[in-house]
Amino acid sequence: MSTNNVNITPQSLFDAGNDFAAAFPAAATGDVEEGTTAAAAPPAAAAAAAAAADDSDDDEQMGIPPSAPNPRLQELHANLSPNNLLRSQREAKTFENWQYVHTAFVLYTYLNTPQYIDDAFRRHLRDVDATIDYGVITNPPRRYRGPLPIDERKKRHREKILREKISDALGHGGMQALRTTINLRAYTDDPIHYVQYLIAKTEANGKFFVPDHYTQLRSHFNNFCKRHRFTPPQEFVSLLGQYMDGFQRLANKARQSGEGKMHTGSRCMPWEMYRDTTRWFYSLPEGDGIFGAAWSKTTVNMCCRGDSTGQICTKHLVLSDSGDSFGIAACHAKDSQTGTDPVKLIPRDCFCNPLDFFADWASSVFHYLVLNPYVLRDVDGPLFPGDRKSQAQKYSRALKKILDLYVNEDDQPLCLTKYGVDPKHITLYSLRKLLSCWI
To answer: According to the UniProt record, where is the region Disordered (predicted)?
Structure first.
């Protein structure tokens, strides 16, 4: 059988799904009456997929690329050096966040309490401060049309230059500071110095941060001390903890009293909305929707974060002893990044759902493999090839497309009118929150 005679496209699979829903309405909605049965997948989709699978020996016609070394493994093995091991403690984004907060902290100290800046570094910053060129502000190459007055723009330009020099002094976010920036021995004689910094940040924000943000800021200070190979006195740590408890209680009371939002970050995706998105994915062209459906269903069935989904390899799809599910082990998880928790190594079973096609994991992964047969050829390679960041971005783009595409007669997004959730608050992390609320 030749695949050239079979028209396998995302639209054909979508149409097959609609045919299935029309033929088996109870199965498509999940409302199956007692004593009735439903097909496991749309008949047309299954037939098209089977036709493609029968012709797997004709790799050239299928467009299968030649096998190549796993780029992810190559990158991991390349990190076997002392410096890279330290940089592998956390994700790169975490180190970038540390660096941003640390430079802001040092800049505030330099501008408000310069006596705690290391003497040599303070002289260095003053020399830089005295030679800042404001020509790009006073005589810009293009006319400035923004709302900020020139004094505010000069202030921001100055802070930008100083923070760049501070960042150079600190070095990489996960490494030891290249030079001493703050005299921590003098700074930690009283926690009031750091508390004043937190108060200034809160006032500049115009409202309290969410309670967890103060915990993060305290953690950032601990990381800053580690980068300078300094251990704060126990008395400082104990008293600072009391101040932080006060910050969090006030922040929580302010939020309960109407300040800010009760919900922060990505919103939880309701279960019915999750089913709708998997159905909408099949309407996207060029395989983006097939990928989106397979990615989201794998993430939900694995009860994991998108980062863990991107690390699943083809050989991890192991049929269970009972033969009714695939067990996928996830040795690297957010709360077990070193693989020391034996419970995390237990395979997570992903079952078929013959009663609800739009929630069925097996059918979407099968359709994805039909359109990407080369994945099966590289057993040791990833189930979703490409670096993890690009795959997560690919899913996010597909998700945004369908949320913008499906609207009501008034051009209002269905996710807003039907579920009360703004599309901009639905992200990849919404799947993780779905699991927290639903399971």
So the answer is: 48-75
Show contacts of 363-368: CB within 8 Å, 24+ apart: 363/40, 363/41, 363/42, 363/45, 364/278, 364/290, 364/293, 364/294, 364/297, 365/294, 365/297, 365/298, 366/41, 366/49, 367/13, 367/45, 367/49, 367/290, 367/293, 367/294, 368/290, 368/291, 368/293, 368/294
Gap between the Cα atoms of 366 and 360, Å rounded: 10
Residues near 189 by beta carbon (within 8 Å), at least 6 away in sequence:
236
Residues 139 and 55 in one domain: no
Of 332, 365, 377, 326, residue with least CA distance to 347: 326
1 DSSP assignment: -
Structure tokens at 52: 């493609």
Q: Clarify whether residues 314 and 416 are in a common domain.
A: yes
Query: Could you write out the DSSP letters of every residue in 131-198?
Result: T---HHHHS-SS---SS--HHHHHHHHHHHHHHHHHHHHH-STTS--SS--B-HHHHTT-THHHHHHH
Q: 63-112: per-residue pLDDT in tens?
A: 444 455 667 777 777 777 777 777 777 677 788 888 999 999 999 999 99
Same domain, 286 and 164: no
Question: Which residue in 330, 378, 320 sits closest to 352, CA to CA?
Answer: 320
Residue 66 belongs to a domain? no
Flag whether the pTM goes above 0.85: no
- If DSSP codes are grouped into helix, strand and coil, which group holds residue 333? strand
Q: Give the angle 68-70-389 at the CA atoms, nearest 5°.
A: 125
How much is the pLDDT for 232?
Answer: 95
Retrieve residue 13's tokens: 């699979």
Structure confidence at residue 333 (pLDDT): 58
pLDDT for the residue numbered 262: 67
Is residue 340 in a domain?
Answer: no
Domain that holds residue 37: 3-61+268-318+350-438
For residue 29 the two structure tokens come to 């909605």
CA–CA gap between residue 433 and residue 163 (Å, rounded): 35
